[in-house]
Every structure is written in C-alpha cells, then in structure tokens.
Amino acid sequence: MSKQTKIVLLFFVLLFFLILARLSQLQLYENSYKTLAKINSLIKEKIPAPRGKIYDRNGKLLVSNQPVYSLYVIPSQLSSFDTIKLLNILHIDKETFLNKLEKAKKYSLYKASPVSEQYFIDEIAPLKEIIYQFPGFFIKKSHTRKYHTTHAANILGYLHEVGPVLLKKDAFYEPGDLTGASGIEKYYETILRGKKGVRYYNRDKLNRKTSPYLNGKWDSLPVPGKDIHLSIDIELQAFIDTLMQGKHGAVVVLNPENGEILSLVSAPGYDPAVFTGRNKQLILKSLLQDKLNKPLYDRSILGTYPPGSPFKLINALVGLQTGAVTASTYYICHHGFRYGNRFMRCHCGANGRPVHLNYAIPYSCNTFFSKTYLKILDSYPNPRIGIQKWSEYVKSFGLGNYLGVDLPTGRKGNVPDSTYYNRFFGNKRWRSMYTISNGIGQGQILVTPIQMANMTAAIANKGYYYIPHLAKKIENDSISEKFKTPKKTLIDTSYFEPVIQGMWKVYTHGTARFNRVKDIEICGKTGTSENYARIDGKKIQLPDHSIFVAFAPKDKPEIVVSIFIENGGYGSVLASPIATLIIEKYLKGRITRTDLYNRVIATDLNEIYKYKTYGTVQKN
Amino acid sequence: MGRYRKISLKQYDWFSLLLYVILVATGIVLLSTIDSVQNVSLNYAKKQLIWAIISFFGLIIIYFFNVKKIREWGSLIYLISIILLAGLFIFGKEVSGAKAWYRIGSFGFQPTEFAKLAVALGLAKLLSEREFSLNHIKNIGKVFILLAIPVVLILLQPDLGSVLVFSAFVIVLYREGLNGNYIFIVGWLILLFFLTIKYNAGFVLWGLIILFMIVATGIYIKMKKHRWNYLFIWFAFMFFSAATVQLTSYMYHHVLKPHQQQRIALLLGKISDDKGVGYHLKQSLIAISNGGWNGQGFKQGAQLKGNYIPEQHTDYIFTALAEQFGWVGSVAFVFIYLVFIIRLYMLAERQKQKFSRIIGYSLASLLAIHFFINILMVLGLFPVVGIPIIFISYGGSSLFFFSLFLFLFLKFDANRVEEF
Prior knowledge:
The structure holds two protein chains of two kinds.
Chain A: H1 3-29, H2 32-40, E1 43-47, E2 54-55, E3 61-73, H3 83-90, H4 94-107, E4 113-119, H5 121-130, E5 137-147, H6 153-156, E6 159-161, H7 164-169, E7 178-180, H8 183-187, H9 189-192, E8 197-203, E9 209-212, E10 228-230, H10 234-243, E11 249-255, E12 260-267, H11 280-289, H12 299-302, H13 311-322, E13 330-332, E14 336-339, E15 342-345, E16 354-356, H14 357-363, H15 366-378, H16 383-395, H17 418-425, H18 449-460, E17 464-465, E18 471-474, E19 487-488, H19 496-508, E20 523-535, E21 538-552, E22 559-565, H20 575-588, H21 594-602, H22 606-614
Parallel strand pairs in A: 2-10
Antiparallel strand pairs in A: 1-8, 2-3, 3-4, 3-5, 6-7, 8-9, 10-18, 11-12, 11-22, 13-16, 14-15, 17-19, 20-21, 21-22
Helix pairs in contact in A: 10-20, 13-15, 14-19
Chain B: H1 14-36, H2 44-64, H3 68-91, E1 93-95, E2 98-104, E3 107-109, H4 111-127, H5 137-155, H6 160-165, H7 168-175, H8 180-198, H9 201-222, H10 227-255, H11 258-267, H12 277-291, H13 302-305, H14 317-349, H15 354-378, H16 396-414
Antiparallel strand pairs in B: 1-2, 2-3
C-alpha cells in the first residue's frame, strides 16, 4: 500500500472516530433533543388570543371583536364526500373550492389549511350539525373585527389573511390567521395580536388527537392583545367627515402641545366594516377600482402637494433667522414684480406702497416673499451653499422626509437642495433666480397634509414640535419615546412672534377676515395651488386646490388644523370656513354659525372631479 | 490486444460484492420505513428495488463484456457526459431550482451521476498514458481542464453539492503523485476563505498573527542553520495568507450582492434560517438523538412518524436509520460503510495497471466523499449541502451508475493478473 493511501485511510479512520464521538454525544448523553422529539410526537394546537380593542381619546370603543367561523381541511384525512351539498351551504363555486383544496395540499398534507372563511354564526350553523359527513374538514372558530364607528377607516386600517411571505417569516402565524393590512392594525400588529396559547395532545396511529398530554401540564393560555387608546376624537373625526362630504381632500388636526393627532381625515372615506365578512375581497376590489374617488388612497398622509402660500411663513422665519429680513424690511409691490423677462403676479393690493412683513403675511404678498427668498440665498457666497442652508432650515420643520407617524405608510415630500438643482440644471449651471417659485411655496417643494399640520404646530409652539402620533395610551405599556421628546427647529423662539402676529392678522384684516369666530383668536394662512389636467388630449386649468393652515388660540395653542381640498378654489372660500368650524367645534364643543355650516355641507365638487377623471364624455 | 478470456466467478472479490448487497438492501429497508408513514403512496422502496434489479442486469452485461475496450472508449465516454451536461441547459427539466434532470415520460435521468463515472474513466485514460507525470505543469494543466469543464457545467445548474463531490478526484491525483504541498496550499486557502466569511477578517488575522508568533519562535529556537531563511519563508507564507484574508473580506462585503452574501452565509451556518436549512438540520439532530442507545424500533420514532424531516429519503436517510436503530445501528452502519471503502482502496492498490488502479481509486474516493460529507452534514458538523449516500439514498441514476462503476472495477480486479 502506498504512503499516500495510508495517509488517506488514516484520515478516514479519524473521521470515523469523530462521527462515533458525535453519535455518542447526541444519542447517549444529550437530552434536550429528546424532549423536542417528544413534543414533535404530540399534536400541538394553538389557541388564538383575542385581539386588542381600539378606543378613541375619550374612551369611546371604536373596534372590538366578534366570533366568526371558518372551514379548514387536513388533506391527508380526506375521503369521498358530497361536494355539492358542501358547496351549497358554503355558497362558494366549485372552482374556488378545488383551488383552495389544491393550495392546502401544497402547503401541507398533515397541517390544517383554510378552505372558506369568515362565516357568521347563522351562516355556518347548518354545516356544524352535519360536519361529520365530511371527513378531513372541521370548523374553527376565530375572531374578526367589529366596528362601532363608520368613520376613520384610514386610521384604523383593516385585517387580512396572512400571506405566504409573512407566514414564512414570522412563526407566530398559521394559515388563515388574520393580520393587520393597513393603518393602526398594521403598525401596532405585535401589540394588538397578543400571544397564542398552546395545548398538547397525544396522537394515535391515525394522527388523531386523543387525551391531553400530561393532563395539560405543558399547556399555556392565550394572552389577549393589548388595548390601544388613540389620540383621535371620533366625534370630531365624524364632524369633519360631514364637512368634507362632496369634496376630495384631507384634513389633519393636531394638538401642538404633545403632537397627538385629533383627526386625520381623507375624503371621501369608507366604512371600516366593509372588510369583515366573506365579501371583503369583492369590496376591496371595487374600492381599488374606484378611479373617481380613490377611497383607499389616504390623502392625509400620502397626498403630496405644493404647499402654496402657507410655506411663506417658513420663508419669513428663515429670513428673520438669517437676518435677510427684519421688521423694518420692506419691498415695493406693483401687482407683482418683474424678474428677467418674466413677471410674477401678486394680489396683495399694496400697489406702490412699501410692504412690510406684518402686511405681507395677512395679504400674502408674492413680491415680498420671493425677494426675501432670493435675499436668503444670495446672502451666501453662492446659490448652492445658500439653498443648502435654506433647505436645512426648512427640513428642521419636519418637511422633506418621513415624519415618523405611527402609520405603516407615508411620503417624504420634497425639499429641494443643491444636489437636486445640480441634477436638474447641471452642476453650477443655475442661479438663485431659477428657483424663485420656492419663495411662494410653489416650485419643486412638495408636502403632505400631515407635514403641513406639523409645520404649523412647530410655528404655534414657537420652535419645536412633537412627532404627530395616533397612539395616546397602550394598555400596560407606553407609547414610543420618540413621540414624547420635542424636536427643535433651527429657528430661535424670538423670531416666531412677528410671524404669529401676521397669521393672526389673516383673520383680523387679511384674506380670511370674513371667517372670524367670536371669542377665539385664530391664527391662519390661506393658500391655493394651481393645477392642470390633461382632459380629452388638452391641457386645461382646473379650479385651484384650496389650502389652509391654522392654529388657535393664539397665545396658548391647543389645536392645529391643516386642510387641503382638491379644486376647492381660493383658500378663504372653502378651506378657511371649514378650519374655523373645526376649531370652534373642538374648543367650544358646538358650532354657532349654522348658516356657514350648511353652506359648507351643501358644497359639492363632484362635477369637477368627474370632469377631471372622465373628461367631457360622461360615464354614469 | 490479447484474446478475450472468460473469467471464472471465483476471481471476483466476493467480500465487496457482499458488502454492496448489504448496503443496497439496507437502503431499501430504510426507504420502506419512510414509505410506511406516508399517507400518499410514494413507493420509494419499490422504485429503488426496481433500480437495484436493473443494476443487477448491468452486472450480467459487464460479466460478458470485454472491459478492455473501456480504456479505449474513455475519452469518448467523457465527451458524451460533457455533451449531456451541456444539453441540460436546453432540454433539462428544472426541479427545485436546479436544471439537473432529463425527463422522458415518467423516467428521470441525472447526467451528473453519469458524469462522475465518465470523468473517472477520462481521468484514468489521461493519467495512464505513457510517460505521463504529474510533475509537469503542462500535464497538471490538462488534468485541470479535464476536471474543470464538468465542474463548471454542474456549478451552473446549479448543484453545489455535486461540485463538492468532485473534490474526490483530488485524492486520486494525490495518490498518483501530485505534490501534497499544492493540495495543502489550496486547502489552506479555501479554509482561510471560509473562516474569513464565517467569522470575520479581524478574527482570522489575529489567529494568523498568533500562529505566526508560535511557529516563528519554534523556528528560532529549533533551527540553528538557515534560521533566517526559514523565518523569511514562513513570514512570506503568512503575509500571503493575510493578504488572502483581506481580499476575501473585501470581495465578500463589497463585490458580492446582498443575496449572494446571504447564500454563502447560510451555507456556512453564519446566519440561521429556522424555517429552511436551519429547520432541516434541527429536525435531523432531533431524530438522531431520539434514537438513543438502541433506537425506537422498526418503523417507530416521533420524527419518522411525524414526517418532520424533509428529504428524508435522500439526503437525510441516515436520520431514519439513527432514529429507528439507535447508537448501535448507526455505529454498525458507519463501520460497515468504512470497511467497504477501505476494501475498495485495498483492491485499487493491488492493481497492476495504472488505469484500473485509478478507476478503483476514483470509485473509493467518490463513495468516501459522499459518505463522510453526508454523515457530517446530518450530524451538524458540516454546512448543509445536498449530497446523498451512494447505494443507500433514494435515486435511480446514482444507484445504477455507481453499481455499474463498482461492477466494472471488480471485473478489472478479477482480470488483474491478465496483461492488457
């Protein structure tokens, strides 16, 4: 035998001893694996835990649970049965049924998979009595949501059956389990779902469960999910829903003192209860296909729009902070001003008179803010540094990035910086003048309604904000620390006073003076943003989007409102009245101006929306 | 070429044939226990039995066949196997992510199994050429190309397990005179590569530094002559190693894409995946452990009956044996297989012809690599790769071609006194 062979064989003999040692360790000494084998020899049954309830800020129950029944199958135990009889009771067609069976077989022959789900007790009762005629099938009781409100569907979200990806990723779930699909239900899934209980049974030769193992010594009880109290005032939410009927848009109401979201309305909304019961798939489909109303699209957190005039407030603040503007700075406005070979129009009405900051805010002077913006940028060595600094200030108001709201979706919006314009125009190939629209909140800036509300809260608080959030209290737990720590803007407290005075003047003298409310000092800012649509192949200008931000009372702000109404026209026509009604309702508990209220409710913009969506050719 | 002379049955090595029959029978019995817990009739045992019978016909054919011809056909057979491997990319059927099968009706054929035999024949033909020495770099190049073509084709399927199996031929080359230092250096680099990924560059570098210090001290104390020469060589070697570690680390973190990183990390057990590979291994260990001293008994055992082990009929067949027959059965089995492998090495060594020696050596090495990697894998001592145990695990192509391989070699062995 050659030397090499001896070495090779010696190596294999050593491996043999290694295997011997490992086998001895596993089979003769180790006991932990044997326990696991014992568990594997039992039938493990998980007991679902009741899902946590959801309340509003005043302790009103919004979402609870109700029992619901589903038919499951264990494919390996199937034998022949009367298919037609089963289908008649279940009210499903043969194809879906066979599909489900096929899926179940693919998942596992020995584990249970759902066949048809979400029957209420009276629907399933006839099957319960004759289930013995269908070997391999059994009925499992679980819970679905019960809704005590028809509002706030965008906040609450809904549940859906857990998908294959999550099923693989998270061992908590079994096929047929429900999990949060959107809203609070999704964001706080792990808090709401609780902990399942376990029961162990001995199994017989045919894989059927017999007696409880060790009389239930290893069993555990389910731990119910934790209840969540939202910061939402459901009455206010319903009130706003009513105000917004016939309009598309979003309303965000915050408490600036702590960042709690009092209302988050996306109009038109839908009833959260549509996602319970067996027809949820059909309803979901029809809602998804509703091109006109897009009810599932939460405009309050996903809609991104140019902020329009309310953004002038930020430019005023940045101007004051950087010294580009002081109380005595003024510009002359001639219905606008000329720059290069273009003209920016202005409706402030101060033709030829000097415009100071305390006039520019209430009358929304385009000239003043455009020139302020230019001066901010040009106070730096070049526009690239200027816009970089400017965007840092702007972003400190929570714009241009995810706010961190406790909802599973959101949008960043956009605050352009030097990188943005370098890409847009080419490196160093642009001047501050090119970006002048930023001065009046048009241009490339995009915000979501909730970002705008948060920005207003930061102004109301004179320099800081709390991340807006929906969870007010979680049972036996606390809300995230990030919602309790204030975030500072880069503007010093002292610079806010003139801006807030200006916002107050909006109601006393300015663009919203007709919407004053007795005894409440409201500060606000109207805005509009132009919008165009391509209809029948032509670019057509539609009525402006109506924008409004406000807070009240002036000296100790308790409420911030941000409103966005698609094609609502000039800000003071629709958005401002709605804001004052909301503020009045929240602070006083009732409204006095019923005429205004009725006028708002009666306003229906659906004709414009239909025109926008379908063009002149009307579809029913 | 001499005249064909009939060989009497007595000249066959009956001991290996006996072990072969015992192993195949063991495999079929184990498959029948796995079948017994399936509610659906999969009939692995029955199908394997049919393949065993087909293989037996192979024995008869080879008995009457003039095996001397095989040597001439070595290159042709090698070529056919390459064509079959390449053809997979066009005609192959994809099963669980790899194009490794030809399917004709209900009959499946895995050319990779054929390639193992064909490459052995091709290699034997090349190495047994007159004046062929593995000391020439040109010859090493030829061998390298001969092995690299099928390896690359199999890697592209992709079937990582089978690629690993081809390392068996390195043992053959070692026996045929390839300098052990080459193998040591390549092995050392591969080890560094995996250690770097499994732990991290810093960890391995510290290990290298400590190793360097210890050995350098040893050289300084022990070596009186040429002390500095040795120290320099040692330093250069360690420097080269450290550079490899750094390069590997850089490649892994900056060149590979995240999903590629994840695959390697999973393979090395760096990250565990409780539902996938990690789950298989855990259930495997539970089953082996559950066997205890003398097993749960025939067709008994929680893991077997609960059908907890995926692929128990192929890669994890050892767990069925370990759970039912315990420590006693497992050790006996591993011992018998080891004896079988050693016996084949001994037969290979007694060949007078280089060609038949290489055939025998390839067979023994392939069986050994399959066997040890598989057992170490199910015992959790080796990363999880899909490698079956030859003659035991379910698989028609594998059983058939390796039986043919064995019969062919035994015929050569029976013929060994003859001059070719």
